[in-house]
Write a structure and sequence with these properties.
This protein has 354 residues and is an alpha/beta fold. Helices cover 40% and strands 20% of the residues. The chain starts with a strand and ends with a helix. It binds 3-isopropylmalic acid (IPM) and magnesium ion.
Length: 354
């Protein structure tokens, strides 16, 4: 009997459709190899949901994802919906979605493929071997804090964290570090912000439960600098919502292409796996998008939600082999490319390498 998983699928807008289709293709190949069956159900979110229902996050989507084992997510948004009121914009739907799903821990790896060291804007000797995991708190902090508001002359948001919120994200970071190089660097602005002092005190306390893990602290401005100056010093970076938003974009650029990096948002009820890049409306429908970040997100789904480590390893190895063999989508065609391929072809090749 094959094992069976219920996967909710949100393709979203722009290139979301093309890239998620490739991830499903690759999951099909690992399913065959490891005797796993995936049952997919598709839901609307973002611009396509606004067009179809007037709501960027229909209740049906919330219920469907909550009832699934995990959610595979493409990308949402685009210029067509940018001028709507903030509450109606796809981004608001995304934040509401994260909150409803309870996905408080956002894992964003930044790794550098050896074949692509030249794709980074940094020198190869600085970035070779970089392997960072950014653990970003995702449903608290200034994104959700009250009070917030705006008048003609004044705008305000509030950065709030409770001890419980800091504790649970710290545990995620320390547990991950135990499986990696056992180093956590916690990022804050404790020289200025009270909320950061609480963050620092709390992470110090939780660290005592993980005596094998080394905890250091760094101010966020210094971290922005250190990521460029000496990125190999980092193993796990633990941080709050807005600092993590900014630093994970910065870390992603170490790898040279935003088309390569996956992410996982895990938490209390279910988990969502998505590429870190957006819906790329400028190339939507052209079939040239790089599906690797989404395929790597499917691998994270197998690893973190479904406990299918072997299947996840098989996907990661297939991606590595495809890169080593010199297949590149347009975004990386300038780097060690033996054959330029489109989105579907990239999916085919990775699937055949499983
Ligand atoms: C991200 C994005 C989102 C965020 C936006 C689109 C709301 O930048 O996932 O990093 O700020 O969290
Ligand atoms: Mg961001």
């Amino acid at each position: 009997m094959p094992k069976n998983y219920n996967i909710s699928v949100i393709k979203g807008d722009g290139i979301g459709v093309e890239i998620v289709d490739q991830a499903i293709k690759v999951l099909g190949a690992v399913g065959k190899k490891f005797d796993i069956n995936f049952d997919y159900k598709e839901y609307l979110m973002g611009g396509c949901a606004i067009d179809a229902t007037g709501n960027p996050l229909p209740q049906e989507t919330i219920d469907g994802v909550l009832n699934s084992d995990a959610c595979l997510f493409g990308a949402i948004g685009g210029p067509k919906w940018d001028n709507l009121d903030r509450e109606l914009r796809p981004e608001s739907g995304l934040l509401r979605f994260r909150k409803e799903m309870g996905v408080f821990a956002n894992l964003r790896p930044a790794t550098v493929y050896d074949e692509l060291v030249d794709a980074s804007s940094l020198k190869p000797e600085v970035i070779k071997g970089v392997d960072i995991m950014v653990v970003r708190e995702l449903i608290g902090g200034i994104y959700f804090g009250e009070p917030k508001g705006k008048t003609e002359t004044k705008g305000w948001n509030t950065m709030v964290y409770t001890v419980e919120e800091i504790e649970r994200i710290a545990h995620v970071a320390f547990k991950l570090a135990m499986k990696r190089d056992k180093r956590v660097c916690s990022i804050d602005k404790a020289n200025v912000l009270d909320v950061s002092q609480l963050w620092r005190d709390t992470t110090e306390r939780i660290a005592k439960e993980y005596p094998e893990v080394e905890l250091t602290h760094m101010y966020v401005d210094n971290c922005a600098m250190q990521l460029i100056a000496n990125p190999r010093q980092f193993d796990v970076i633990l941080t709050g919502n807005i600092f993590g938003d900014i630093l994970s974009d910065e870390a992603s650029m170490l790898s040279g292409s935003i088309g390569l990096l996956p992410s996982a948002s895990t938490g209390l009820k279910t988990a969502v796996y998505e590429p870190i890049h957006g819906s790329a409306p400028d190339i939507a429908g052209l079939g040239i998008a790089n599906p690797i970040a989404t395929i790597a997100s499917a691998s994270m789904m197998l690893r973190y939600s479904l406990d299918e480590e072997d299947a996840a390893d098989a996907i990661d190895a297939a991606i590595k082999k495809t890169m080593a063999d010199g297949y590149r989508t347009g975004d990386l065609a300038a780097y060690d490319c033996k054959e330029q391929v489109n989105c579907t072809q990239m999916g085919d090749i990775i699937a055949s390498n499983i």
